[in-house]
Specification:
A 5-stranded antiparallel beta sheet has the order 3-2-1-4-5, covered by helices on one side. The chain has a single domain, classed as SH3 type barrels (Roll). It starts with a strand and ends in an 8-residue tail after the last helix. Helix content is 17%, strand content 43%. A hairpin with a 2-residue loop joins β2 and β3. It has 1 helix and 5 strands, in the order βββββα.
């Protein structure tokens, strides 16, 4: 089973970017979301950003992960 997670895009260079969730940063492919800008949240699945997510919805999802023990507090 795979899980798509919200991550904040920190930087980008063409179709590649670096996104962060908690204390973990990962390189992500941005080909499917050409409109995204650093500082926005994306849904990442298997290393690819598949959609842009508004900050409020991303924060709700991240809090759900925290409350379920899937992400440490403050991370």
């Amino acid at each position: 089973m795979c899980l798509a997670v919200p991550m904040e895009l920190l930087s980008m260079d063409g179709n590649r970017g670096v996104a962060k969730l908690g204390g973990v940063s990962r390189e992500v492919n941005l080909m499917l979301v050409p409109e995204v800008k650093p500082g926005e949240f994306v849904i990442v699945h298997a290393g690819c950003a598949i959609s842009v997510l508004d900050r409020e919805e991303a924060e709700k999802t991240i809090e759900t992960f925290r409350s379920g023990g899937l992400l440490p507090e403050g991370g």
